[in-house]
Amino acid sequence: MSDTAQRNEKESTAAQSAGASSQKTLSSRGGKEAPAERGRTTIADGVVEKIAGMAARDVVGVHAMGSGFARTFGAVRDRVPGGSGAAARGVKAEVGELQTALDLEIVVEYGVSISEVARSVRENVVAATERMTGLEVIEVNIAVGDVRLPDEEDEEEESDKPRLQ
């Protein structure tokens, strides 16, 4: 082989190597991202609040969510056409890009172990929120605002009755 032919062959091999390495660099830089990785997903505080509220209500021993005023106001709001539901009542969420923190206010049934109910609420809320949103739940603070006694009537049940009999 002549010197010119050997030089051309080396240049051709070098060009192919450079082309291959530039392709690897291009794909490693994300030139062709998977469709699921294109764009950004944001989750509103209200979405996380509803998920956490529903998960907390599923726990045996939780009678209601929110303070007495919030429950009364919520009962009125639920009756107004177009009023939002009670799913997020008693829940406050702070949502970041990767994590969320939750504050819940609950009313427990009389006779249940409050510490066991709180533990179960935490477990259920963390599991549901992380499964549905993909966010890491860094804390779930629970305030027990009231206990429902067996002989008490709910505000919602009370407001369903006609005033005159």
TrEMBL record:
It comes from the Bacteria. Residues 1-12, 30-40 have a biased composition (Basic and acidic residues). Residues 13-23 have a biased composition (Low complexity). InterPro entries: Asp23. Residues 1-41 are annotated as: Disordered. PANTHER family: ALKALINE SHOCK PROTEIN 23, HYPOTHETICAL CYTOSOLIC PROTEIN-RELATED. Belongs to the asp23 family. This is Asp23/Gls24 family envelope stress response protein. It comes from Streptomyces gossypii.
